[in-house]
Design brief:
Strand 14 and strand 15 (477-485) form a beta hairpin. By secondary structure, the chain is an alpha+beta fold. The chain folds into three domains: 6-53 and 113-226 and 269-288, no CATH class; 291-410, 2-Layer Sandwich (Alpha-Beta Plaits); 416-523, Alpha-Beta Plaits (2-Layer Sandwich), CATH 3.30.70.3190. It contains 17 helices and 17 strands.
């Protein structure tokens, strides 16, 4: 419904008399015209006064109908069956004259709305919009559109219920059925008003799918006081939470309102609600950009560098890590708040990663800068590579969140190639190890290694050694090149891990074997795409 009709007269009159703002009155009359809500507050008050002064036999309208998309509704009641809009004489009962409401109308023009607590009053004005935009501009984000979100004080749901019950009660007293069972959501009406103003001031469109969010958190000093009766009536709905200052959260209040009986609500809260003493406060104006994802491949050339920070019992063991050497440059360029590092598997601190490197991805949380050209990404890659001789990065590029799934799929499904330097306690000759080259698809049973048992569940994992190629060095040393199923524990395959991996190189050679050096020569995951130099 995009305009007021004679059927809305009782609702308009009753709500005006109790201190409800004109925009909330439009909401309770289920007016869906976005343009109406954008009219100035004073103009709407005048329109409502003129509407009430019209002949009750005439179906008046506040303004021309405007075609708008369907709006969301809040369902407050089940529609009452039976009855129509007429009394037994076929006419709409007459309310007190419109003139009797003039004083209430003039008073409500400067008072805090008893339903929205001022959200649809001063927080729709140009001064507040400029304040929001100043906050956005000072935060120095890159964005081409925005999505606007708002957090409202929990007692707004209580006041909205109280206003509805008050209207319902008065309509019954007048012998009128309730013409509507739903109203326009306050949040939706607020966005109808604020979106065009923000778009004009920021110079970009509002877009519900935008990754850049502008949010406003409203609070009110009387929240706990006004919601306290619900905690008494429905104690199960309100439970303390560690990260919440008050038990009266929006969801808890809504849950209690669904549970409380109408007669109990009417006993404890005035219907319609009384006028509040204070406007809401805009507690926080926040900006947040959706995460940006950067992927690439890294080579690790040091045998004294962990993939991620190595901290045991709160004490740092080594000064840096692969993760940090890469991310510190990305954090600085993207101006992000934090990051999350992931990769296709991981190597031990003393293992090098050679060949074409290991795929990795970094999620940059709330970045201020999000647009980078291919040339800028190349320069960023070069900066990372110039900063350390312990790692090198290649194929650095922006990717989507969905694309990272391809990297994770490869962790268990793909193959990896290793080179291991092996020592044996008994002397060996070339012919002693030659048979290893002929072994194909060797099945292993690997119980969770002792060295990772503190962070991995105890289990027996079946893994495959696809191929092996031996390279004799001397009587106690040889190099073994292996192509294995991803997830195979290579060190344990060499020394046996006290019999926890069967078979192993020691058992195959019938002697004690240990691993001196291990290199990852390739991680066969075809991701991310290779970039031209």
């Amino acid at each position: 419904m995009s305009s007021l009709t004679e059927k809305d007269r009782p609702i308009v009159q009753l709500l005006l008399n109790t201190g409800t703002c004109p925009r909330c009155i439009l909401r309770f009359c289920c007016v869906g015209s976005q343009m109406l809500y954008r009219h100035p507050h004073k103009g709407l008050m005048k329109d409502l006064q003129e509407f009430l002064e019209k002949s009750q036999e005439e179906e008046g309208t506040v303004c021309l109908d405007v075609a708008d998309p369907p709006c969301k509704r809040i369902r407050l009641e089940h529609r009452e069956e039976g009855g129509d809009d007429l009394n037994h004489n076929g006419a709409i009962p007459r309310l007190p004259s419109a003139g009797d409401g003039n004083a209430a109308m003039e008073s409500s023009a400067g008072n805090v709305c008893n339903v929205c607590l001022g959200i649809l009053q001063e927080f729709c004005e140009a001064d507040f919009v400029k304040k929001v935009c100043q906050k956005v501009n000072s935060a120095d984000y890159q964005f081409t559109s925005f999505v606007f979100s708002v957090s409202l004080p929990p007692q707004l749901s209580v006041r909205e219920r109280a206003a509805w019950l008050g209207v319902k009660q008065q309509m019954r007293n007048l012998g009128l059925p309730l013409p509507k069972d739903d109203i326009v959501q306050l949040k939706e009406a607020y966005k109808w008003i604020i979106h065009p103003q923000l778009s004009e001031e920021l110079g970009v469109p509002a877009d519900g799918k935008s990754l850049f969010e502008v949010s406003v958190v409203f609070a009110h000093p009387e929240t706990d006081e006004e919601c306290h009766f619900l905690a008494t009536a429905c104690p199960d709905c309100f439970k303390p939470a560690k990260n919440k200052q008050s038990v009266f959260t929006r969801m808890a209040v809504i849950k209690a309102l669904e549970k409380i009986k109408e007669e109990d609500f009417l006993k404890h809260f005035p219907c319609p609600p009384s006028s509040p003493k204070n406007f809401c406060d805009a507690l926080e104006i926040q900006c947040n950009n959706g995460a940006v994802f950067v992927a690439g491949r890294y080579n690790k050339y040091s045998r004294n560098l962990p993939q991620t920070p190595w901290i045991i019992d709160g004490e740092r063991k080594l000064e840096s890590s692969v993760e940090e050497l890469i991310s510190e440059h990305l954090m600085a360029e993207f101006k992000a708040d934090s990051f999350n590092f992931s990769s296709s598997g991981r190597e031990d601190v003393d293992v090098r990663t050679l060949g074409n490197g290991r795929p990795f991805a970094i999620e940059l949380v709330n970045p201020r800068r999000i647009h980078f050209t291919a040339e800028e990404m190349k320069r960023l890659q070069q900066a990372i590579n110039d900063s350390s001789d312990k790692i090198q990065v290649r194929d650095l590029q922006l990717v989507t969140r969905e694309a990272i799934g391809r990297m994770k799929e490869g962790e268990e499904e793909k193959t990896k190639t290793y080179s291991a330097l092996i020592w044996t306690d008994k002397a060996i000759q070339r012919e002693d190890i030659a048979f290893l080259d002929d072994i194909k698809e060797l099945k292993l049973d690997q119980k969770t290694p002792l060295r990772v048992l503190h962070r991995r569940p105890l289990a027996v994992r079946c893994r495959l050694i696809h191929t092996m190629k031996s390279e004799y060095i001397d009587e106690h040393h040889f190099r073994l090149h292996l192509k294995t199923q991803a997830g195979t524990y290579i060190k344990e395959f060499v020394h046996g891990d006290f019999g926890r991996t069967k078979p192993n190189i020691g058992s195959l050679l019938n002697r004690t074997a240990d691993i001196l050096e291990l290199d990852v020569e390739s991680v066969d995951v075809d991701w991310p795409p290779t970039l031209a130099d």
